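Section 4.2 – Deliverable D4.2 (structural model, holo form)

The reporting period included a commitment to supply a predicted holo structure for the target in complex with uridine-5'-diphosphate. Inputs used:
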Amino acid sequence: IDYVTVMDIPFSNLTQKELLKEHIYPRINKENKTYIVTANPEIVMQTRIDDVYKNSVKQADFIIPDGTGIVIASKIQGNPIKERVTGFDLMFKLLAYAEKNQLSCYFLGAKQEVNDRAVAKVKAQYPGIKVAGQHHGYFTNDAEVAQKVAVAKPDLIFVAMGFPRQENFIAASLPLFNKGVFMGVGGVFDILAG
Ligand code: UDP
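Output (structure tokens):
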């Protein structure tokens, strides 16, 4: 795939449609482990001051430009990214795909009651969705929680713990998994919970 590097971060230069139809859906169907970072300008700035985080982000299979600022920066550089792809939209596309294709989802992050409400909202919006499990995002033993998620064998794992926590958790936990699409979704559970 084509990359456009902005501030030393190699962004996948794909439309949302190309990303999903040509890359993510086929990888899900082949059970290829996939790690997506939806990087907004705040995330890009964090990689500049935090080497651990930068390493976690750079392990991603796809780094997606989640912000017009990144698209504008790419234009100024003379190598324009095709379009902004938001993590928010991507998550809902993936949920619809999961419902249609009987894929199971894990919801990790936010406070327990927020997590509960967010999952209830998802179930209401996608009645056929298979919930592999859910867990709040306030824990200290990452390996233990990662193991809990892994035994549920989810196809999609949405991690809503904010950055840098969510990407650091995903990058460190990936070796425990044989399959799954992993994605940090920041404050989306809070938005869903209302
Ligand atoms: N969060 C969490 N565990 C933590 C820190 C934060 O689960 O250790 C959750 C928090 O409850 C919220 C989400 O992460 O639901 C996103 O937080 P924030 O808005 O700070 O992140 P951003 O959207 O800016 O990435």
